[in-house]
Design a protein that fits this description.
13 helices; MetI-like fold; 297 residues; 0% strand
Length: 297
């Protein structure tokens, strides 16, 4: 009997997540979009880490003799309205943009996941009160709420992305709550409770690992949205402050010269577009990998 009990406990501890983890990489590897997206994001991360070695010029060095120059052997992507090399600013803008996305999503996870698990598992009046508060937050346009929080925290990239993370948190809390409501009814949770597991043990070992799968997909999508939010806030001069480079800030400056130098908007715009598409494609591949009803045969 003791052997059967130990085997049962081991099965309860593992839960249904092992098979999903086993097949995750296999499904992603078969998806060309995911492979290309991972390759692009890995390249972008490498560029961000070695921006100082890769960039041909300083991103803040001005040259009044070369204002709004077209692409040339000296400046492959031309220069901006202050004579700064566009390629160098594009390269130096990559770490700021990736940092902004990662910070915003990390804040959203740190706030939204614990809140969603707690209210979903405990339920009752706490769930009712917090859910209504979440509904109230979600009723505001996200960019307006982000601007309001940024105004309260202060202008700057970190504060701007903290505000975006706070705006994202209710979305994750709602997703995790819904998944927790389903997982807490599972047989392996009842078995764990029957074997004497405490509430914190059940939450950490069973509820959280099996409620987190939709969050993985949502996080990749939020990284793309956070990138666009950073560009929007920098465009409004609420994010990265001059002379530091960011893709949104480059768009904002290029917009002023769209009639005489429209090419200035292409490079940061395409960088934002391709990065957002890469995050979205990776998220779609993860959704297929983690959803049993969508697995490819």
């Amino acid at each position: 009997m003791s052997t059967e009990t130990s085997v049962a406990k081991e099965a309860v501890a593992k839960g249904p997540t092992a098979a999903a983890r086993h097949s995750l990489w296999r499904v992603i590897r078969r998806d060309p979009r995911a492979v290309v997206s991972l390759g692009y994001l890995a390249l972008l991360l490498a560029v961000s880490l070695f921006a100082a070695q890769i960039a041909p010029y300083s991103p803040i060095e001005q040259n009044v003799a070369e204002l709004l120059m077209p692409p040339s052997p000296a400046h492959w992507l031309g220069t901006d309205d202050l004579g700064r090399d566009v390629l160098s600013r594009l390269i130096w803008g990559a770490p700021n943009s990736l940092y902004a996305s990662a910070l915003a999503v990390s804040v959203a996870i740190a706030i939204g996941v614990p809140v969603g698990v707690v209210i979903g598992f405990l339920g009752g009046w706490l769930d009712e009160v917090v859910s209504r508060f979440i509904d109230a937050l979600l009723s505001f346009p996200p960019i307006v709420l982000a601007i309001a929080v940024t105004g309260a925290l202060g202008i700057g990239l970190t504060n701007a992305m903290l505000s975006v993370g706070i705006v994202f948190a209710p979305v994750l809390a709602r997703i995790v709550r819904a998944q927790t409501l389903v997982v807490r009814q599972a047989l392996y949770v009842d078995a764990a409770r029957a074997f004497g597991a405490s509430t914190p043990q059940i939450v950490v070992r069973h509820i959280l690992p099996n409620a987190i799968q939709p969050v993985i997909v949502q996080v990749t999508l939020m990284l793309a949205i956070a990138l666009l939010a950073e560009a929007s806030l920098s465009f409004l001069a609420l994010g990265v402050q001059p002379p530091a480079a960011s893709w949104g800030g480059m768009l904002a400056r290029a917009y002023n010269y769209i009639e005489i130098a429209p090419a200035q908007m292409y490079t940061p715009g395409l960088a934002i577009l391709f990065t957002a598409l890469a995050f979205n494609a990776l998220g779609e591949s993860l959704r297929v990998a983690l959803d049993p009803t969508m697995k490819r045969r």
